[in-house]
Amino acid sequence: MDKSMLGDLDGLPEEDKLRMAAMVDQLQIRDSLRMYNSLVERCFTDCVDTFRRKTLDKQEESCVRRCAEKFLKHSMRVGMRFAELNQGVATPD
């Protein structure tokens, strides 16, 4: 976990900081798994029509690749935009 995320917790005891860091790590893992599951479900639904073979045919493979690239690019753009918006928010000190 990025230590700068816990910068506002300087007044807490070390045990609470560690507990908070563990909670943030769990949330990040959960969010990553949700994103991955969403990607798999969406691309599978959009690209795989039949179960003719054990492996994907060229058209399905190409569709899955494009779908995954679009999904990841979109997710990165949303994350960047979110970070831009967060930088603009003033924090009271």
Automatic annotation (TrEMBL):
One of its GO terms (molecular function) is metal ion binding. It is found in: Mitochondrion. It holds the Pfam family zf-Tim10_DDP. Keywords: Chaperone, Disulfide bond, Metal-binding, Mitochondrion, Protein transport, Translocation, Transport, Zinc. Its main location: mitochondrion. Mitochondrial intermembrane chaperone that participates in the import and insertion of multi-pass transmembrane proteins into the mitochondrial inner membrane. May also be required for the transfer of beta-barrel precursors from the TOM complex to the sorting and assembly machinery (SAM complex) of the outer membrane. Acts as a chaperone-like protein that protects the hydrophobic precursors from aggregation and guide them through the mitochondrial intermembrane space. Belongs to the small Tim family. Heterohexamer; composed of 3 copies of TIM9 and 3 copies of TIM10, named soluble 70 kDa complex. The complex associates with the TIM22 component of the TIM22 complex. Interacts with multi-pass transmembrane proteins in transit. This is Mitochondrial import inner membrane translocase subunit TIM9. It comes from Zizania palustris (Northern wild rice).
